[in-house]
Design goal:
single chain; alpha+beta; Phosphorylase Kinase, domain 1; Transferase(Phosphotransferase), domain 1; 2 domains; 12 strands; 20% strand; binds adenosine-5'-diphosphate; binds magnesium ion
Length: 274
């Protein structure tokens, strides 16, 4: 008896209909409901079992993760561009790096927790997966709370797939690189305060908010990079994280010429929370 596993996607297709080297079958059909983004799914989502994911290049490499651009499409039809954030399971991705973020959370599986603590290669891959799940959950929470984040499409192992924020294949610039001034700068500041407020209403602080984690999509500000989202009430340093988030963005806006009082913003957010 053959021990080969049945693979519906294999061998039934002529070779030209197989994904190429920079392609794979869409990971959507095999994902479970908990690995998929909040309902209702946006109508631009491609959910067909016949879709392929095609690598279009690297958007940005980072210390903990790399962001790639992919297109998910049924061959021969228009698809959708997605950002694929892939956490590294090598050196720097130590989930316990940010112990203070993690207060109030525990790793359920003690074998995993020990492996992460030892920094074994298994531990590092557990850590990378843990970061991906953390970021995906945070994106889902933020999305449900009405925070302007990229729609979280899917998480699988160490990869988070989300809406690509950009024009065509060009990613939206980070706020740090944008040339906003005058009224446009003020408008961006108002949007950032609204983002902080929406997080606060849901009980969270971003935890790493800065002009590098805010994208300027033709004047609409979108917040990214949330694996370390902080539950302000449960985390003993929650208010410190919130304060730091406020200071980071307020001082940046002030330096660019948008006068503001960070203490006022902070007080307002604390008021929104309690
Ligand atoms: N959904 C997205 N759409 C467009 N660009 C993105 C998206 N997510 C990330 N990027 C780009 O990739 C960079 C790194 O992503 P980020 O989530 O901030 O990871 P890191 O942990 O490396 O800072 C961002 O500064 C941005 O330029
Ligand atoms: Mg970042």
């Amino acid at each position: 008896m053959s021990s080969a596993r049945f693979d519906a996607s294999a061998s039934l297709l002529p070779p030209e209909l197989e994904p190429g080297a920079d392609q794979r079958w869409s990971t959507w059909p095999a994902s479970s409901p908990t690995q998929r983004g909040p309902l209702p799914h946006p109508d631009w989502l491609v959910t067909s079992a016949g879709a392929w994911d095609t690598e279009l290049g690297v958007v940005k490499t980072g210390k903990e993760a790399d962001v790639h651009l992919i297109e998910r499409a049924v061959p021969g039809t228009a698809g959708v561009l997605l950002a694929s954030k892939r956490y590294r399971s090598t050196h720097h991705s130590d989930f316990h790096r940010s112990g203070s973020y993690e207060e109030g959370r525990t790793m359920r599986n003690t074998r995993d927790a020990r492996a992460v603590g030892r920094k074994s290669s298994y531990g590092r891959s557990v850590a990378a997966g843990h970061w991906a799940v953390s970021e995906f959950d945070a994106l889902c929470r933020a999305w449900r709370a009405g925070v302007p984040v990229p729609y979280p499409v899917q998480v699988s192992e160490t990869e988070v797939l989300m809406e690509f924020i950009g024009d065509g294949r060009t990613a939206a610039p980070r706020l740090a690189q944008s040339r906003l001034h005058g009224e446009d700068l003020t408008d961006a500041f108002i949007q950032v305060v609204a983002i902080l407020e929406a997080f606060a209403r849901a009980g969270f602080a971003h935890g790493d908010l800065s002009p590098y984690n805010l994208l300027d999509h033709d004047g609409r500000i979108v917040v990214i990079d949330l694996p370390q989202i902080v539950d302000v009430a449960a985390n003993p340093q929650g208010l410190d994280f919130l304060y730091r988030d406020v200071m980071n963005v307020s001082t940046w806006f002030a330096r660019r010429g948008c006068d503001n009082d960070p203490e006022d913003v902070f007080a307002h957010l604390v008021g929104v929370m309690w």
